[in-house]
Amino acid sequence: MSNNNANVTNMKDRYGPWALIAGASHGVGTEFARQVAAQGINCVLLSRRESALKELQTELENDHGVQTRVIAVDLSTEGAVDIIEAGVKDLDLGLVIYNAGAPPYASEFLKAPLDAWQGLVRLNVTTVTDLCYKLGQRLVERGRGGLLLVGSQAGLGGNKKYSMYTGTKGFMVNFGESLWIEWKDKGVDVLNLLISVVDSPTLRAQMKKSNIPGWDAPDIGVPKPVDIAAIGLRELPHGPTFIHPEDEATPAGETRPGVTRRESMLERWAITAPFVGDD
Ligand SMILES: NC(=O)c1ccc[n+]([C@@H]2O[C@H](COP(=O)([O-])OP(=O)(O)OC[C@H]3O[C@@H](n4cnc5c(N)ncnc54)[C@H](OP(=O)(O)O)[C@@H]3O)[C@@H](O)[C@H]2O)c1
Fold this sequence. Notes:
Order of helices and strands: HEHEHEHEHEHEHHEHH
Radius of gyration: 18 Å
Structural class: alpha/beta
CATH architecture: 3-Layer(aba) Sandwich
Largest sheet: 7 strands, parallel
Number of strands: 7
Helix content: 40-55%
Distance between the termini: 45 Å
Shape: globular
Bound molecules: NADP nicotinamide-adenine-dinucleotide phosphate
Low-confidence stretches: 1-8
Number of domains: 1
Strand order of the largest sheet: 3-2-1-4-5-6-7
Strand content: 5-15%
Oligomer: single chain
């Protein structure tokens, strides 16, 4: 494992004592939980499959001596954030990682039930909005913390069979960048981690369903969750956006695409501020 976490100093001071990882039961989310717990930060583990979360709970408590809490909830349903709020109201949360968010399947827009797309809108738009509002308020009030939105390069443009996925992930990129500029002087780091294909159980299941040969091969030639999570935690203080793998591959001395996005955003704000007030 290449553990870039060694580069993160004082993570517990900056993002502890509790983190919430939404979408923790497999893949990138599980790796986030492991790496956050390894820094001594207590973890709230959230997804739909309670049994998988409980296994991870035992592992983290045994391996890292941290406290954990499990919340089993479907983030694509109304009322999910009320359940989360109730589950964390007594905790001093310093870090929120929103990792759930893949589409239920790849399909042209008109070939899937409308309900499926509306569920994806709730997962990637409505729930994200409500969660960032309610937990973001707490982070800003305490003046210290982090919000890491696991996004996708799909959020940078449209694609066949991914209309709602690209649409909802596009919302997350622009929303997250806006929160970064609003919270950057309030002690709260915001990062959109825009990734390309990663070897997650969801990807494997999609490959199997689409009869793609090699779906069960040990190595399918794409990044592993452990490395993606490490990059996300390393880059959290350097938002608003990290584009993987392009930013990682940019030679020293050249400007990373994520940095170009940050510069354009700051330029846009400089143009807008005189008309809306910089307060
Ligand atoms: N895999 C890729 O190639 C790829 C590429 C680009 C971006 N991404 C992004 O990376 C993130 C992780 O991707 P992933 O492939 O691991 O997929 P995922 O299917 O979004 O699963 C990630 C986690 O979220 C949970 N989850 C999914 N839907 C949920 C729901 N409705 N309510 C509560 N929890 C839910 C899953 O557990 P449960 O089943 O227990 O609920 C799992 O723990 C996503 O945001 C995805 O958009 C992935």
